[in-house]
Write a structure and sequence with these properties.
single chain; 87 residues; alpha+beta; three-stranded antiparallel sheet; 2 helices; 3 strands
Length: 87
């Protein structure tokens, strides 16, 4: 019987093009794809490799089944915006 695991992905557009993908619940699980479709497929592959390593080392396998991701917008004054450093 196969179990389905759920993982949240964060896609960050890169200045040179493509997307970096971060899997927050799997520390260090980061990959890249030239477009969203490839980035998602690369993430699937990276997660599979990460899970294989966890199983091999008899470590607990986390899942995001009970979590969710949202965003929040914060309004700032123009003067404050000039002082911000964007990463």
């Amino acid at each position: 019987m196969e179990k389905t695991l759920h993982y949240n992905l964060m896609f960050k557009p890169e200045p040179e093009g493509g997307f970096t993908v971060i899997v927050p619940s799997l520390p260090g699980c980061v990959t890249y794809g030239k477009n969203l479709e490839q980035a998602k497929e690369m993430a699937r592959d990276a997660i599979s490799g990460y899970l294989y390593s966890l199983k091999k080392h008899k470590e607990q396998i986390p899942s995001d089944a009970d979590s969710f991701v949202t965003t929040i917008n914060i309004g700032i004054k123009k003067q404050q915006a000039k002082k911000l450093v964007y990463a």
